[in-house]
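Fold sample X.
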Amino acid sequence: MATERLASERKHTAMALFAGLGRRYDLLSAALSLGQDPRWRRELVARIAAAPEDRVLDVATGTGLVARALVKRYGCVVVGIDQSVDMLGGARRALGRRPDLAARIDLRRGEAERLPFADAEFDHLTFTYLLRYVDDPAATLRELARVVKAGGRIAALEFGVPDPPVWRPLWHLYTRTVLPAAGRALGREWHDVGRFLGPSIEELYRRFPLERQVELWRAAGIERVRARRMSLGGGVVFSGVRSAKGPSENSPRTPGAHAGFPDGP
């Protein structure tokens, strides 16, 4: 019962935090990541390499930053799904200013854990800052992989935790002191987000270190998994290819057997 309560609190916290943030999310998310968020998203989009005729699912689409970037770069069709009405409202307002992109983006409300789509319905899939907010990351990854065609590319962006001894203390100071203070200057809601962000990132990596996250990707039926740590480890871009085998047929490899953790600038 304690585990169920914790899971429920995690989900409800995510919903409450992002209520009402849709109007300024794009600008403020870049500011609160010291300007690195746009770089990380560009790397995420580059991993997809979609064709114009492809259909891409963008999960946790938020205000549609990645969905719009996918259409701009590849001319593909994108379905963006998010559980937050406020975030989807922000995405629709942004698309209202870009009718050329809106014609190729379909926004829907839904949850990553229970996608309202058929097996192998999409050519590729992206998701952003998702796993910290779901109750069961392994099950969620299996559900995400389920809707991607064999050979389709899957890419994701998550915050990371820099390595000690130099950068970890500075990161801790930034996320515990600077980030909440910056959020306070921008409004009560962003103060709450800033105060929440650091502890929630550390909790994810306590539960699922980077090597373990890669194992979860493989076990979900995703192969050729890579994880690129960017900005001194502050962001991590994951990518892989949907296997033709089912999740149960993908046996996890031993930790450290995959050298897919390059550090990037």
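Fold sample Y, listed below.
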Amino acid sequence: MTTLDGTVWDVDPAKQLGGVRLKVCVEGEYWCGDMRTGQDATKGQGYYAGSLWPEPKAGNWWVAVVDAQGRALSEAVLFQTDTHSCHPDGTGRQWVIIDFKRNY
């Protein structure tokens, strides 16, 4: 499985931001997905998580904070995944963690 999670933080580093929308897209595919913070109360209101692909997938992905119309409110952050082994001594990258911090 290929997954992305992280936390969206307020300017105050002790506060997480709930209800924030994010959009993630993969290069070479006509696929983009929406995510929203606050879906797991045990992780805090700024936490987001989602499955990007049902199995390990190599690719270049982008994630950004967006408004209700899907327009970017942050820079898009590039991340890469691969299909290498994720066993303890493997080099695989299928679980990516990206945090955002509000700067105003």
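Sample Y note: The radius of gyration is 14 Å.
Also: The chain has one domain: 2-101.
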